[in-house]
Design a protein that fits this description.
By secondary structure, the protein is of the alpha+beta class. 36% of the residues lie in helices and 20% in strands. A hairpin with a 2-residue loop joins strand 13 (333-344) and strand 14. Helix 1 (3-26) runs antiparallel to helix 2, helix 12 crosses helix 13 (452-460) and helix 16 packs across helix 17. It is globular, with a radius of gyration of 28 Å.
Length: 666
């Protein structure tokens, strides 16, 4: 055996032993060696890698902490979208959820559920290539997150290399990074500026540019979802496989044959959760069968086959000072209670939603009542009930919703479909103000300085009546507004004109189309290169996009077929806004790769796998993980896997990166 072979063999032995020891300590809590022994072996490995740096590999324990801080994080698109879960807040709603999915599909075989504790942390997506950790990304908006791989490597319960003899070429893992309570207490004792709660601490830690700081905070990670070729067809089996390949999986889970068992599980942990060393704010209920999951699919934002059953939120009592109504950008009139300020779940609450007239009647809430208030989903304050024994003895009048819009005086309309009360006057100042506020918001056109007060002044002066009018204003017109100097007017016009450079997906979100949030807007912009394409698209073209359901598709068709909306888009285009995506030649409807299916293998010279995938999709193609007779092209880089042999056997065309780029150029 040569010296080189001996060194390589010793390094592999040390990596294997140290990774095994790390798994035993951090995942199964059953140490197999003393700390001093581990440290000695670690130093030996470190010394060999310093002497032979070309032998350092990504799965080495020495690579968990970066040598120097990164300059920033790169936005990365998820290959599989991270959907959020719908929340429910009591056991009755659990049955309603079951009835809802059974209306869509009624399986003949017995149905099983998996109950898992809902960890209060930060969702993370991991990608393993040939068994080695390649990438760790934050959830972000579910479509795009930030690449924080260097920070992810500091979490010892995340394996750098899967304990999988012959791993699939690509494995995607989803899970939750969290901070144990004990670590949260320790960190806050050492800090002058305290973290509000462990969840905030995790979020802030993962976005540290220096991975050494991340390592000092001892984050942990529970894995809960597995995506790969030929994976188990049961969530329960997937959890077992995750444990086998080296992940920490929450042990407090249950396989249930009925919702009755899920309810018992929920009630058990409602009382016991405070004994855990991490925060959990509810339980996640999933259909165990992956086949059923795939059949049910997703709504625009959530899986139909899973739901989060939350524990009761923190509550407090306060006094209702007044009840007002807000008119939103869609015309929906929402009652709101103004209350005496009260401290609730880390914030001062001064107003709470009352949802609608039916909710007011159900609560019998009146101005002057003492009420119990909580944060629904720990975000939106709402009134739970009225303390009738504290109502003034002289009595107070009942409250009724107005019959006329408080902003424009138009008669309000009550929808039979959703019981919402609406102002149908498209010229209502409140609706126009709401639309423009949404247009100017940070996630839409991000127009600095265009706040509520300025918009109200512009509407009052009749300078604007739609978002398109913003781009017709001149400095001199704005200067004439009350309390508006020339410099401020110039800055505002400059910010408005600067928003013309925003990409197509932001404009699509800014239009405020019903059911189109940030994630859906980004998704649609990747499939349709322009507003004109969306105007011409049919129902089947919208529904063909993974994540766009029938309801969303109908909403899009209705909006884009409306002549008034088409005129708005024309005006925006004429004003110089990007109502098309320049990175897509023809979108998925007739691109250069339209109708073609690609599979990737190996390492490309200059493109990452994600960049190659986006490039192909932006030219109309589709990228899948596994080769079949229906595959059109195999894109090959260095060190290809078994897919290359299979492609040869099936007679599939094989391309390198250069040939792919030449094809794209026509």
């Amino acid at each position: 055996m040569t010296l080189k072979q001996a060194v390589e063999q010793r390094i592999e032995q040390l990596k294997g032993l140290l990774n095994k020891a790390s798994y035993a300590y951090y995942v199964v809590s059953a140490p197999i060696m003393e700390d001093a022994t581990y440290d000695g072996l670690y130093r030996e490995l470190e010394g060999l890698e310093q002497q032979y740096p070309h032998l350092i590999s990504p799965d080495s324990p020495t690579q968990r902490i970066g040598e120097s801080p990164v300059l920033g994080f790169t936005a990365t698109q998820h290959s599989i979208a991270l959907y959020s879960l719908d929340n429910i807040f009591n056991l009755e709603e659990l049955k309603t959820w079951e009835n809802r999915w059974r209306k869509l599909i009624n399986p003949v075989e017995p149905v099983f559920y998996v109950g898992e504790l809902k960890i209060d942390g930060s969702a993370i997506a991991l990608t393993y290539i040939n068994g080695v950790l390649e990438k760790g990304v934050t959830r972000g908006d579910g479509i795009t997150g930030e690449d924080i791989t260097q920070n992810i490597k500091t979490i010892h319960s995340i394996p750098l290399k899967l304990n999988w003899g012959r791993p699939p070429e690509k494995v995607e893992i989803r899970g939750e990074a969290f901070l144990p309570r004990s670590e949260f207490i320790r960190i806050n004792q050492e800090r002058d500026q305290k973290f509000a709660n462990p969840r905030n601490a995790v979020s802030g830690t993962l976005r540290q540019l220096d991975s050494k700081i991340v390592a000092q905070r001892h984050l942990s990670f529970f894995a809960y979802t597995l995506h790969t070729q030929d994976q188990p067809q049961s969530q329960w089996q997937c959890l077992h496989l995750l444990e086998q390949i080296g992940f920490l999986v929450n042990p407090h889970r249950v396989l249930a044959s009925s919702l009755t068992e899920i309810k018992s599980y929920y009630q058990q942990w409602q009382s016991q959760r405070n004994n855990l060393d991490y925060l959990t704010d509810g339980v996640v209920v999933k259909l165990d069968s992956v086949t059923l999951q795939e059949s049910l699919g997703f709504t625009q934002k959530s899986p139909r086959w899973s739901v989060a059953l939350k524990y009761p939120a923190q509550e407090a009592s306060t006094l209702v000072k007044d009840i007002i109504v807000n008119v939103g950008r869609t015309g929906v009139v929402t009652p709101m209670a103004l209350v005496e300020p009260v401290h609730l779940a880390g914030t001062i609450v001064q107003r709470a939603t009352l949802h609608n007239q039916a909710r007011i009647k159900e609560l019998d809430i009146r101005i002057g009542d003492t009420v119990v208030i909580r944060k629904a989903g720990e975000i939106i304050p709402e009134i739970v009930n009225v303390l009738l024994n504290l109502r003034p003895p002289e009595g107070i009048d009942s409250y009724s919703m107005p019959t006329q819009c408080p902003q424009c005086g138009s008669l309000l309309y009550k929808s039979q479909a959703d019981a919402a009360i609406r102002c149908l006057n498209s010229a209502c100042p409140a609706i126009i103000k709401g639309q423009i506020l949404h247009w100017a918001s940070r996630d839409a056109l991000d127009i600095s300085g265009l706040g509520e007060k300025i918009i109200e002044a512009l509407l009052k002066a009749k300078l604007i009546n739609s978002v398109a009018d913003l781009y017709k204003m001149e400095v001199q017109q704005v200067v004439e507004l009350e309390r508006m100097g020339k410099k401020s007017a110039e800055k505002l016009i400059q910010a408005i004109n600067g928003s013309k450079g925003q990409p197509w997906y932001r404009i699509l979100y800014g239009l405020g189309i019903g059911r189109i949030g940030k994630a859906n807007a980004k998704l649609l912009s990747q499939h349709f290169s322009s507003s004109q394409q969306m105007t011409q698209a049919g129902l089947d073209q919208f529904e063909a996009i993974h994540g766009i359901g029938t309801e969303v598709a109908h909403t899009l068709i209705t909006w884009f077929k409306n002549p008034g909306n088409q005129e708005l888009l024309r005006q925006l285009h004429d004003s110089g806004l990007n109502t098309e995506n320049p990175t897509i030649d023809s979108g998925h409807i007739g691109g250069l790769f339209s109708g073609k299916t690609f599979v990737l293998t190996g390492t490309l010279p200059t493109l990452s796998r994600e960049q190659a995938k986006v490039f192909i999709e932006n030219h109309g193609g589709r990228v899948v993980d596994s080769i079949s007779s229906k595959t059109d092209y195999l894109l090959v880089g260095e060190n290809p896997g078994s897919k290359l042999v299979k492609a040869h056997n099936l007679g599939i065309a094989i391309l390198n990166q250069g040939e792919l780029l030449q094809m794209a150029e026509g």
